[in-house]
Amino acid sequence: MTPIIEARGLSKKYRGGKQAVAGVDFTVGAGRIVGLIGRNGAGKTTVIKSLLGLTPYEGYLRVLGRNPAAERDLLMREVSFIADVAVLPKWLRVRDALSYVEGVHPSFNRERAEQFLSITDVKPTNKVRQLSKGMVTQLHLALVLAIRARLLVLDEPTLGLDLLVRRRFYDTLLNDYMDDERTILVTTHQVEEIEHLLTDVMFIEQGSIALDTPVDQIGERYAQLIVRPDQLAAARSLAPFSERAVLGRTVLFYDGVPREQLAPLGELGTPSIADLFVARMQKEAA
Amino acid sequence: MKGVYPTLVRRELWEHRWLWLAPLVTAGILIVMTVFGVVMASSHLGGFNAAWMRRLPDGAIGMRFGLVGLTTQLFSIAALVVTFYLLDCLYAERKDRSILFWKSLPVSDFQTVLSKYGVAMVVLPLGTFLVATITYPLTYAISAVGLPGFTQLTGGWDSGAWLAAEGYVLAGLVATMLWYAPLFAWFMLASVISSRSPYLIASLPVVVLGVCEGLLLHSGYVWRFAGSRLLPVVNASEAVMRPSLWIGLAVAAGMLYIVMRLRRYRDDT
Question: Which chain A residues are within 8 Å of B18, Cβ to Cβ?
Answer without folding.
Answer: none
